[in-house]
C-alpha cells in the first residue's frame, strides 16, 4: 500500500442557509480545496461524494454527485456516490484513500455536503428517521422527546452511562462550554457565541438529561479534501499530511464492544500507535455526553474517568489532547454528509499549524471518530481516521 497525503482542504461556513442549494455549497468548497492544493479540476482522477439526506430533503437521488458538481469542471470524471448516514463523507474519504493507496489513482477528491434546512421543519427531522432499522422495535421512551428520535436514543445512553460513572449534567454542560469557546474562534462554525454552564443547564429540556444546548442542530454546509499519492504531493507546496490509518466497522447486534471501540482499536493497530500518542482529536459529539463516552471508547482515559478528564481541562484548547477544537458537531455544526470531511479538515489545519487561536501547540498526530445511524443499540457504523505530519 502506498502512502496517501491530504494536500488540499476547503469548506463553506456551516449554518442554516435557506437561500442556498447543494450545488452552490459544493462549488464553493471544491474551489477552496483545489485552490488550497494549487491544482485544477483537470488534476482530479476520481471523486467520492458523501451525502446522507439529499433524497429526503430536496428529492435528488441516484446521481447526487453528477448533479451537484456539474458546474465545477469535474464533469466526465469517475464519481462515486456514497451514502452512510452521518459517516457518509468519512466513508468517502476511506474509499478515496484506498483508491490511491492501492495505486488505482494518483489523486482523488472527497466531497461531503448536506442541505438539511427546509422551510418545513418536519422535512428536516424526517431526514433522520431512516437512519435506523425501521423494522427494529424502538427502545422504550424513544419518540417521547421534542422531535428527534436520535436525541431520545442519546439521552437513554447518557442516563445509563451517568449511573455507571457518577457523571453529572454539569459535566455535559462543560463539554458545551468548551465547544462554544472553540467555535467562537472558528469562522466556519455555526454557533459562535460563548456560553456558561448555567446557561446550558437552563436551556430547554429536549430529552432528559439533554438540554437544547447539549444537542447538535440541523445545518447546511460542504467540506472537501484533495488527496494524492506521496509522489504526486512533491508537486504541491503545502505541508504534506499523511493518512496513517482509516478503519471502518459496522454494528454487530449483541456485541460486547461498540463500533467506536472496535474502529479505534483497528486504527491504532494500523498506525502502530496508541491513544497516548494523539495530540488533537475530532469526535462525533452529536450530543454532549457522546464526547465524554468517546474519551473512554478511544482510550483517552480509563473506563469511568471521563468526568475527571473533562474537569481537568486536558481536552480543552491547547490541552494535552485537544478535543473538538473546531467546535465539534455541537458548535461547528452537523450537516450530516459534510461532518466527517469537516473533522478531517480541522485535523489537517491543526497538523499544518494553521488553526490560529485554536491551535494545539506542537500537534503532530490527529484522530477523527465519526459515527452514523443506529442499529441494535449501537451506532450502525463508525470510522476512525488517523493523520500525522
Automatic annotation (TrEMBL):
Limits of the Thiolase C-terminal domain: 259-381
UniProt keyword annotation of Transferase present: yes
Keyword Ubl conjugation: no
InterPro entries tied to this protein: Thiolase (IPR002155), Thiolase-like (IPR016039), Thiolase_C_2 (IPR055140), Thiolase_CS (IPR020613), Thiolase_N (IPR020616)
Pfam families attached to this UniProt entry: Thiolase_C_1 (PF22691), Thiolase_N (PF00108)
EC number(s) per entry: 2.3.1.176
PROSITE patterns linked: THIOLASE_2
Protein keywords: Lipid transport, Lipid-binding, Transferase, Transport
Thiolase N-terminal domain ranges (all copies): 4-230
GO biological-process terms attached to the record: lipid transport
Coiled-coil portions: none
PANTHER family: ACETYL-COA C-ACETYLTRANSFERASE, NON-SPECIFIC LIPID-TRANSFER PROTEIN-LIKE 2
Designated name of the protein: propanoyl-CoA C-acyltransferase
Species whose genome carries this gene: Pollutimonas subterranea
Lineage summary: Bacteria, Pseudomonadati, Pseudomonadota, Betaproteobacteria, Burkholderiales
Amino acid at each position: 500500500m502506498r502512502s496517501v497525503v491530504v494536500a488540499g482542504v476547503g469548506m463553506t461556513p456551516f449554518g442554516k442557509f435557506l437561500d442556498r442549494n447543494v450545488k452552490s455549497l459544493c462549488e464553493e468548497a471544491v474551489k477552496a480545496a483545489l485552490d488550497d492544493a494549487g491544482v485544477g479540476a483537470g488534476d482530479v482522477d476520481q471523486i467520492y461524494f458523501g451525502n446522507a439526506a439529499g433524497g429526503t430533503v430536496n428529492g435528488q437521488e441516484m446521481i447526487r454527485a453528477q448533479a451537484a458538481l456539474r458546474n465545477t469542471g469535474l464533469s466526465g470524471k469517475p464519481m462515486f456516490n456514497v451514502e452512510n448516514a452521518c459517516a457518509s463523507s468519512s466513508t468517502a474519504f476511506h474509499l478515496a484513500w484506498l483508491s490511491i493507496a492501492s495505486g488505482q489513482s494518483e489523486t482523488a477528491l472527497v466531497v461531503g455536503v448536506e442541505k438539511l434546512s427546509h422551510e418545513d421543519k418536519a422535512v428536516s427531522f424526517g431526514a433522520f428517521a431512516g437512519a435506523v432499522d425501521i423494522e427494529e422495535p424502538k427502545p422504550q421512551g424513544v419518540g417521547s422527546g421534542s422531535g428527534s428520535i436520535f436525541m431520545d436514543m442519546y439521552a437513554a445512553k447518557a442516563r445509563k452511562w451517568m449511573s455507571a460513572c457518577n457523571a453529572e449534567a454539569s459535566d455535559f454542560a462543560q463539554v458545551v462550554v468548551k465547544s462554544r469557546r472553540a467555535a467562537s474562534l472558528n469562522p466556519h462554525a455555526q454557533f459562535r457565541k460563548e456560553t456558561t454552564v448555567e446557561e446550558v443547564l437552563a436551556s430547554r429540556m429536549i430529552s432528559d438529561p439533554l438540554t437544547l444546548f447539549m444537542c447538535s442542530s440541523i445545518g447546511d454546509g460542504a467540506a472537501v479534501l484533495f488527496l494524492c499519492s506521496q509522489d504526486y504531493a512533491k508537486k504541491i507546496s503545502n505541508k504534506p499530511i499523511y493518512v496513517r490509518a482509516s478503519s471502518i466497522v459496522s454494528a454487530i447486534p449483541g456485541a460486547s464492544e461498540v463500533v467506536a471501540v472496535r474502529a479505534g482499536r483497528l486504527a491504532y493497530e494500523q498506525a502502530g500507535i496508541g491513544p497516548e500518542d494523539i495530540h488533537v482529536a475530532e469526535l462525533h459529539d452529536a450530543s454532549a455526553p457522546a464526547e465524554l463516552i468517546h474519551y473512554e471508547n478511544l482510550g483517552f482515559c480509563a473506563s469511568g474517568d471521563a468526568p475527571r478528564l473533562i474537569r481537568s481541562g486536558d481536552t480543552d484548547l491547547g490541552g494535552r489532547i485537544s478535543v473538538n477544537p473546531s467546535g465539534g458537531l455541537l458548535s461547528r455544526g452537523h450537516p450530516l454528509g459534510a461532518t466527517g470531511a469537516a473533522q478531517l479538515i480541522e485535523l489537517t489545519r491543526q497538523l499544518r499549524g494553521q488553526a490560529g487561536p485554536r491551535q494545539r501547540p506542537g500537534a503532530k498526530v490527529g484522530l477523527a471518530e465519526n459515527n452514523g445511524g443506529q442499529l441494535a443499540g449501537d451506532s450502525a457504523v463508525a470510522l476512525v481516521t488517523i493523520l500525522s505530519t
